[in-house]
Amino acid sequence: MTELILFTLFCLLLLANQSIAIAIIVATFASMILTIDVLPAATTVAQRLAAGVDSFALLAVPFFILSGYLMGSGGIASRLIDFAMSLVGKLPGGLAYVNVIACTLFGSISGSAVASTSAVGGFMIPEMEKSGYTRSFSSAVTVTASTVGMLIPPSNILIIYSLASGGVSIAALFIGGYLPGLLVTFLLMTAAAIHLKRTNQIPARAVDIKPFITAFVGALPSLALVVLVIGGIIGGFFTPTEAGAVAVIYSFILAFYVYRQLSAKDLYPLFLQAVRTTSIVMLLIAASSAMSWLLSYQSIPQAISEFMLALSNNPLYILLIINLVLLVIGTFMDMTPAVLIFTPIFLPVAESLGISPLHFGIMMILNLSIGLCTPPVGSVLFVGCSIGKISIAEIIKPILPLYVAMVIALICVTAFPQISEFLPGVFGL
To answer: Among residues 72, 144, 250, 350, which one has the fewest Cβ atoms lying within 10 Å of its Cβ?
Structure first.
């Protein structure tokens, strides 16, 4: 009865256009009042909300959010685009590859798929249109490639998964996301190449060595952020939380003194954006923590685990079911609440079959990244369509092959845990 009331109220509140956090809190509170008489519902919910954000590791989230905004407004995108152009711009259809690589680089530095879509798409979509690409294809490439930043650190969602999973090493998740992220990038470029071959080849752009050197030097300070953060964590110089603070300081120096794209008057709106985003994320974490506690109190994860294990003891079969469920969930729920709610439900099932939390986490993030660029609530999809000035209907046809590429990457990561676990193993994580 508890889970029925919880699920029904949650869905009704979402249909009533309430925010996800409010829907979770109200549904959890009402379920406790109506079905669990022995608990003081208000006190319990308040305690769970506070406990949900009472974590030292979560301090990294506002730091990386602020760092992302500083990077997004600090002239980073244009330099990364120039660097990507110097790498693959001379290839046939090179601007599509430039778009993918630039989105991957910017997404990994900023940690935000939406910021990547806005910053890179704002330049690359009109540029690709001038060179003969359709706006719908250019927007589709930008939207899908921007999600790669969810896998490549510094990524806030990996930190949130670490919290939801009960303490998987953030450093291991950061390192483990590289190969899956690069796999997605490669497959997106392959899908773009196939599309271009079927719809006529786009002329190549000649690029000589001088622009490459200039572009590399211009992009090097931005790329160094990833080396600084990951190298510092692996080397034991600072924790992931301290790495977030280091990233803010480095981003500030880069934006104000190296690239000189920001001034003192730009600080207030940047801090305001960071505070708003942090508040939304923290409220979602607190609300999801309360719901997860209620689910655990009612032994719902254990019941689901027993049900799924009764279906099969084949890990690949169970992971296939979980992936299908998550693909559906990702189409109507944002990534953060999905990770917080469904990690405690599905992770015990995976662990009982010998699947590592690291492998499961990377698979889950890659899966839910697809939901960011699928209707009806894909935030990155709507931003990309807005920047490209096209409708959802116009982007569907060119984005379908790119969806296929992302699903192929998901299948590879699911079937071969070595893709996620190889690099963490090399570094002893």
So the answer is: 250
pLDDT, tens digit (0-9, with 9 covering 90-100), for 147-175: 998 898 778 888 889 888 887 888 899 89
Rounded to whole angstroms, the Cα distance separating 220 from 224 reads 6
Under-70 pLDDT residues of the chain? 1, 37-39, 74, 89, 200-210, 377
For the stretch 363-395, pLDDT in tens is: 999 999 998 888 776 778 888 888 888 888 888
Report the alpha-carbon distance of residue 329 to residue 378 in Å, rounded. Answer: 11
* Sequence-ordered list of residues with C-beta below 8 angstroms from that of 243, at least 6 positions apart, any chain: 60, 154, 229, 232, 233
Rounded to whole angstroms, how far apart are CA atoms 71 and 102?
14
Query: Would you state the pLDDT for residue 204?
Result: 55
What the block records as the tokens of 277 is: 């985003």
**Cα–Cα dist 21/287, whole Å:** 6
**What amino acid is encoded at 246 in this protein?**
V
pTM of the model: 0.84
User: What pLDDT, on a 0 to 100 scale, did the predictor assign at position 89?
Assistant: 67
